[in-house]
Amino acid sequence: MSPLRSPLTLALWLLAASLLLCIAGVGVGSLGWEPVWTRNGDASAAILWDIRLPRTLGAWLAGALLGLAGAVAQGLFRNPLADPYLLGSATGAALGVAVLLVLIGASPMAASSWVARLGLTGAAFGGAVAAVLVTLGLAKGVQHTLRLLLAGVVVGMVFGAFAALVMFWVPDIMRAMQAFLLGTTGFLGWGSVGLLAAIFIVNLAAAVMFSRALDALSLGDTTAQSLGVALGPVRVVLIGVMALATGAAVAQVGLIAFIGLVAPHLVRAAVKPTHRWLLPLAALAGGVLLLAADVLARWLLAPRELPVGVLTAVLGGGYLLWLMHRRPL
Amino acid sequence: MKMVRALLLALCAVAWNAHAGRVVDDRGVALELPRPPQRIVTMLPSLTEMVCELGACDRLVGLDDYSNWPAQVRQLPRLGGLDDTNIERVIALKPDLVLLASSSRAVGRLEALGIKVATLEPKTLSDLRRVWAQLAQVLEVPDGPARWQRLEAGVDAAARRLPPALRGTTVYFEVNSAPYAASEDSFIGELLARIGVVNVVPGKLGPFPKLNPEFVVRADPQVIMISDYDARALNTRPGWGRIRAVRDGRICFFDAEQGDVLVRAGPRMAQAVQLMVDCLAKRSAAR
Fold it and tell me: Closest to B214 (Cβ–Cβ): which among A47, A108, A179?
């Protein structure tokens, strides 16, 4: 294998891959591969501009948010198995969506009611934030990493059980729920892209600002403290980043599994960077991964679509397994 | 020798077919019933509807959780769904025949407990005709074919009510907001074809394909029908504002009860066609 690359080289590679995938994302539509330059007429320009471009950018941004949140989670909890859904946000979002679907179902065609206006996006975000807040409450703040981890796992299970219970009572929502649980990038519009981009920039800036604290944390809490890291504020900010990034991504594209877990590992398999580099690199890797999955999802069976969550697991997991086979991580 | 055996087999087949209590179900398993069943459990709404339409509603003793038509079956005991069939309660009802969907997990368990089980699952119009004949045979309803002719006539009559100017209208039928569509190959698609309108989703994609939303924008249907009441507002989907149906407001949302009529491949197909025709006629008048 090639010698250890520098983080900058990897970043350039990932950016190039993102660019190529963006071009592919704009070129792949419901008829399979149809390049931009062969377009004809007003309608196809609109399809390009209103559907494919926002969808492509949105998928990249959602993947980047998940990758970033995954890197933050693994650094903060000093656990290579940590993923951004660790604080219960995933099942919280699922519960929010399930409850919303039931409310809509109870009053069909209530298009003007507040429920419909809130929408699935709002319900998912609300559910995710609620679950994280419950976790923080149970863990009595962010002081104890282990308590936090445990509370997150428990809240995840309890919220998941509630979501399953709602599905049991109202089985009509099952199919809609399944679509949400597998994740979908099909309905990303410019509004979503704007929101995701804003949250991504804020979160990336905040996370990179605290990257030195994450480096210090990797030596253990006490060492970090003796190095002059104010643990309390650092944890508050980083958990805020995690919750916001995951909540926003889940609300827009559903529960896309695996990216948050795999993206940081993919980066670490290529280079051994400090967190200042790892965080943006994990974001880039996450973006590349989800965008690649999205392009393949619409390409392979066009005009049918594969669930994008299935492809992220196959792509990311497959690549990681191959890396592990070549040399132990 | 071979020929003699074939002849014998053929004779046997004729003899068996003449015996009303025998039927081969969707698994290819032959079911022998000593007498017409009197205590029937159905675990699929469309089967419930067919049994009742064949005039054997009073022989039903238990149902799945979702059967809700005709009204007289609503008081019957509920025995769970496809995957959570309550075996114990089924046994307690002492049925002499249980009708199940092919995908049900309860089949093996019930058979092991000595219950007569037939799996029948109508998914298309031709399935429906076949299952109708099988049920008529099992229930020993003599005028099964005649009743089927009446159902078919009802469908044709409803289809003829579509104003001729609207024939050939392009339609997109969505069953789930993922979006899953009903293609030409589905039961819904077959009914649309009977009406004489054009389904924009071709049958080669499978009966209920999950589509790239862009496909619908390109196909630009004149009318959109939605049987899923939790469908998201269509004009908030990126690019969907340009679709003719959305621009002209020619979108029909069917409520849960109408959705049952449309989505179940059952004997209420004339009603289903009527719903579609009403949708097409009303929405074009409102334009």
Answer: A47
